[in-house]
Specification:
This protein has 154 residues and is α+β, with helices and mostly antiparallel strands. The protein has one domain. Helices cover 30% and strands 21% of the residues. The strands form two sheets. Strands 1-2-3-4-5 form a five-stranded antiparallel sheet. A two-stranded antiparallel ribbon has the order 6-7. A hairpin with a 4-residue loop joins strand 4 and strand 5. The longest helix is centred in the C-terminal third of the chain and has 15 residues. The N and C termini lie far apart (41 Å).
């Protein structure tokens, strides 16, 4: 996998990053790394790799071990699904570059009509990114498809 598609979490206090997603994630999962597009890969005590897809607000197990995950991540189909190589390249080509500890974050969540396109992204530090979207997904999780949502920002 390309190193520019990964946001290393070394030195990051992942407690605050995780606390707003505990409603969705099993407590035994530990962050492994984030992606440039602001998703999170985690590893369970059993070694199983999980993917937190922030765009959809869903988490799922993807591989039984980190070694299996890395082998599959080298496959272009999985690399595009998990890391969005083409989208990251388009965002960078638009002039939006990441600093250390940053990821691309949605201006508008895809589940609320935001597009997987360069203009719908901005940069955030990884902790802020996960703390912003976790509570919103928790509030939206039980709404039926097509429900109208109105936000009151104070």
């Amino acid at each position: 996998m390309r190193s520019d598609l990964v946001v290393r979490l070394d030195g990051t206090d992942t407690g605050p990053l995780m606390e707003t997603w505990r409603w969705l994630l099993p407590p035994t999962l530990r962050p492994w790394f984030a992606t440039a597009l602001g998703d999170l890969f985690l590893v369970g005590q059993d070694g199983q790799v999980w993917w937190l897809d922030v765009g959809s607000g869903q988490a799922r197990a993807v591989e039984r071990t980190p070694d299996e995950f890395q082998r599959l991540a080298a496959d272009p189909e999985h690399a595009d699904l998990w890391f969005g190589e083409a989208l990251v390249d388009a965002i960078r080509a638009s002039g939006l570059l990441l600093g250390p500890g940053e990821c691309y974050s949605y201006r508008q969540l895809p589940m609320l009509g935001g597009e997987y396109a360069a203009p719908n992204f901005r940069t955030y530090d990884v902790t802020t990114h996960f703390r912003v979207w976790g509570p919103l997904h928790e509030q939206l999780k039980d709404l039926p498809e097509g429900a109208q949502v109105q936000f009151d920002v104070r």
